[in-house]
Amino acid sequence: MYKAPVEDISFTLKHVAGLKPALDSGAFGDLGEDLVDAILSEAGRFASEEVAPLYKIGDEHGAVLKDAAVTTPPGWKALYRSWIDGGWNALSGPEEFGGQGLPTMLGVAALEMWNSAAMAFGIGPTLTMGAVEALDKHASEALKAKYLAKLVSGEWMGTMNLTEPQAGSDLAALRTRAEPAGDGTYRIFGQKIFITYGEHDFTDNIVHLVLARLPDAPAGTRGISLFLVPKFLVNDDGSLGARNDVFCSGLEHKLGIHASPTCTMIYGDGFRGATPGAIGWLIGEENKGLACMFTMMNNARLCVGMQGVAVAEAATQKAIAYANERRQGKVSDYTGAGMAPIVHHPDVQRNLLTMKALTQIARAISYSCAHAIDLARVSSGDEATHWRDRANLLTPLAKAFSTDVGVDVASLGVQVHGGMGFIEETGAAALYRDARIAPIYEGTNGIQAIDLVARKLPLGGGEHVHGYIAELKAVADEVRTSNLQGFGRTAETLDRALDDLSEATRFLQKLLADGRLDEAQAGATPYLRLISLAAGGAYLARGGLAEQNRIALCRFFAENLLGEASALKERVIGGAESLSAAGKALISA
Amino acid sequence: MYKAPVEDISFTLKHVAGLKPALDSGAFGDLGEDLVDAILSEAGRFASEEVAPLYKIGDEHGAVLKDAAVTTPPGWKALYRSWIDGGWNALSGPEEFGGQGLPTMLGVAALEMWNSAAMAFGIGPTLTMGAVEALDKHASEALKAKYLAKLVSGEWMGTMNLTEPQAGSDLAALRTRAEPAGDGTYRIFGQKIFITYGEHDFTDNIVHLVLARLPDAPAGTRGISLFLVPKFLVNDDGSLGARNDVFCSGLEHKLGIHASPTCTMIYGDGFRGATPGAIGWLIGEENKGLACMFTMMNNARLCVGMQGVAVAEAATQKAIAYANERRQGKVSDYTGAGMAPIVHHPDVQRNLLTMKALTQIARAISYSCAHAIDLARVSSGDEATHWRDRANLLTPLAKAFSTDVGVDVASLGVQVHGGMGFIEETGAAALYRDARIAPIYEGTNGIQAIDLVARKLPLGGGEHVHGYIAELKAVADEVRTSNLQGFGRTAETLDRALDDLSEATRFLQKLLADGRLDEAQAGATPYLRLISLAAGGAYLARGGLAEQNRIALCRFFAENLLGEASALKERVIGGAESLSAAGKALISA
């Protein structure tokens, strides 16, 4: 059973991702280490003791649709209630609306724990948090007054309605219509698919944020507006009014996260005799919906990255525990009676250390991204720009690298369990199933890689990323000058990886400058992995410099896994031509 | 829907894995290319048209246990009947017992197709084939006469009973007992788990091969004997007699291959009032059971490797088809109306080409292994030794590399489908689930890697593997001297990978010579991948030399994926110390 790694999380926040210096400098007012640790510890307790025990029943029962109503698995509604009663939904929400206004870092660290305990549970509040942020930034005062406090507390949940059958990664193809009703409201018509927690029994109202087109809107993404469409209309006194014309018409039968209802939502179909048209309110300006949605999406991308970290952590814990229990064979370093616990076998250790190192790296990258978001919020001028750029640079890494790690680590977790891993009762297989969605939703990892190359490498006139690499280089220098034996060849391999990264970065920037976008895109996925591994190596080293007992894992990573960097660089620099040559044969006549 | 890649299979058999020169030299008598192609084509038709349509129903229904009887999914029994009526079970069986005695290569190629169409179907006959081989090599004439013809035709199916709860990878821990009854038969008592097709309704008898210990047997693996235990006793006239005391007490609830019943088998428990003790017959000599079982296991390992190839092929086909249908976004090389099919996006092409290249490599390695088995059978003296060594060397590659490829490619397949990939109806997720067992059963891939390093590198006094590397080197030379432009940097990267392989091989051989087995084991998994990638690169190049239109994929592999070789070499050579240092922290106090 999952046990929240509170100490590891706290250490990574403070000593790797930068929270301690920020706290010491007073960047977050009077927030101190004690409070941070108290919150993490309480969140860890809730995740381990309250959420995790409901994982299996959630996976087995799944969400069930009947008569347009969705029932969540036994115990899940009570769990959600107890979770919001604990104030967990409000952790990083705006104080003006009852939130605790704590740094994103803390929200994200807690989110990791909810997701490790049950990813199908953790994904719901992620959408509510995104809705809060979008409303807080873009909605009218009237809408904020009516909806925000209840979304912040979690009394109501929020959803994001982007995808339509023909419009997934490419929102330009969106067709859902919004017609002005003449009274300041709109009538929404259309079908949305893959809507997470689009319908459920956790809360008595659900606040849908919906992308749609106005009648006179320009084609493409510049003609998309964002609307708030509540399941139940809300009276001025805050009580619930009429049922709105938005209904769940189907649930997807998914590989994993079964307890999370993935809904097809029908807007404005006159369901059950309603006058056709779901009543909605515009958020922000007409035709600027995508910008509003991006507020949500950036946040959501980091949150999905946390799911990658979370499932990797859960899989790693489970595999280490099993490897210490299961006995097979003999091994020279085990002197006990009978067969050795398989954790003594070098090949099993290789799997477990790989899982552990990748999990820690993904966590460090994701927390660093959260930290940048926090510092951008509390700083101003050039410093704010710097941290905003940093957050933007790290978001695709946090999303894509972490979720790839989630899949790979969950797969290794099954492997370590041997035959038992393939049996559903063991639980390792469920993590392998759950993990698979995270590289897909909130922008596939391929889209993240393209975003990284095409939009993030140019930040700060192309210099921001080099500043980041220089910071990572400084860590390698520090390892070298530390003269700590246990680091082995860490400084050397890290230097080499960072040089490779630097070279690959300049190569891609040159392609972009020359307008050779296809070639740059061809190298995007290996580049994202390259920068993530190199950064991860530096983060592990920073951890090792701060705490002696973390050096061995850092060295394992540097001497066993970081070597991939040079192959990735070659792929970025020398791979596009052959890709293009071979790719043509894939296209049907 | 899966369409058997008959042309690709035929090409790989003939021009990459060595079938054509062998046919030309008359190694297989009057077997000619025409017959080979006719068989492949008919097998392909059966797999695509008869097996594949029953995949989904098999996955959804699964096998069901009631009153110790297992019912396979609707249509599956009839499918099996029609499959054996087509003579497919007898393809490579011994002619003396009604088999067609065709080369293993052909059996394996057909097996790939059954498994691509439905892995849960393909695994059943795999076990029967293993039983046939073990009986043919080790059983008494009386047992052969009674059982072999019906196993060869497929009228009865066979099983392998090795695993017990405490004895998985380590068979020394086996507890099942066999007591001599004094009449030449034995009574078997014990519990076996994870028994594939241990009970089912395909055939009216099932022939279990069971590992058990005689009362006076030495401890460990030198005290294990192999027994034949039929579900129904067989009268001398071949008719079925009494029900034997062996029953299925449970089915596993698995991640994938749901239609394949994975049984807990209880031997000798006096079930339903039977006199306790399952009646069995000794196969081969007392206490030599493991050697007999290894006959089966080597074969089964290659067959499981084919499952890796098979699922990768199915996933690749599905992903390419989807990428040609699904339209999202714009891309410069697509000039058609509306959004471009996603196959035009370079990042999608990278995924698809990676899938395609890895699948072809795994296929080439596996067929080369089958070819070596065939040539060992038809040759004698040094030549036979050479080919036996080759088969032994390639077996762990065929099993472990191919099944890792199966998982990785199925995962990429889900990714290419985007959100649809996570929906079970699409079918990509089912392949991802099915694929996951193959790296585990028939010896985990970690065990395969250790087998490769500890038992296969020493073959031929340590020289066999270097001879193999020299053959691969010759392919690189041929590419270079061919002066074919399309190969790009293939010769150069292949040479480099083979040099890395050579160095890593000598390093591990030195460790073995020095008795440093733990360190050698620490490098086993990266070594297995290194030799597989290097060999795979050479096989793709051989294909490209034989057929112009195969050059582009070879080059993509060489310039994009083969670069991993140098990192793998470093891991083999420089990774053990840090692994050992960090590994200790994994062990619970």
From TrEMBL, chains A, B:
Coiled coil: none annotated. Residues 287-454 form the Acyl-CoA dehydrogenase/oxidase C-terminal domain. Its EC number is 1.3.99.41. Its cofactor is FAD. GO terms for molecular function: flavin adenine dinucleotide binding; oxidoreductase activity, acting on the CH-CH group of donors. InterPro entries: Acyl-CoA_dh-like_C_dom, Acyl-CoA_Oxase/DH_mid-dom, Acyl-CoA_Oxase/DH_mid-dom_sf, AcylCo_DH-like_C, AcylCo_DH/oxidase_C, AcylCoA_DH/ox_N, AcylCoA_DH/ox_N_sf, AcylCoA_DH/oxidase_NM_dom_sf. Keywords: FAD, Flavoprotein, Oxidoreductase. Pfam families: Acyl-CoA_dh_1, Acyl-CoA_dh_C, Acyl-CoA_dh_M, Acyl-CoA_dh_N. Residues 471-580 form the Acetyl-CoA dehydrogenase-like C-terminal domain. Residues 38-155 form the Acyl-CoA dehydrogenase/oxidase N-terminal domain. Residues 160-266 form the Acyl-CoA oxidase/dehydrogenase middle domain. It catalyses: 3-(methylsulfanyl)propanoyl-CoA + oxidized [electron-transfer flavoprotein] + H(+) = 3-(methylsulfanyl)acryloyl-CoA + reduced [electron-transfer flavoprotein]. It comes from the Bacteria. SUPFAM superfamilies: Acyl-CoA dehydrogenase C-terminal domain-like, Acyl-CoA dehydrogenase NM domain-like. Belongs to the acyl-CoA dehydrogenase family. Involved in the assimilation of dimethylsulphoniopropionate (DMSP), an important compound in the fixation of carbon in marine phytoplankton, by mediating the conversion of 3-(methylthio)propanoyl-CoA (MMPA-CoA) to 3-(methylthio)acryloyl-CoA (MTA-CoA). This is 3-methylmercaptopropionyl-CoA dehydrogenase.
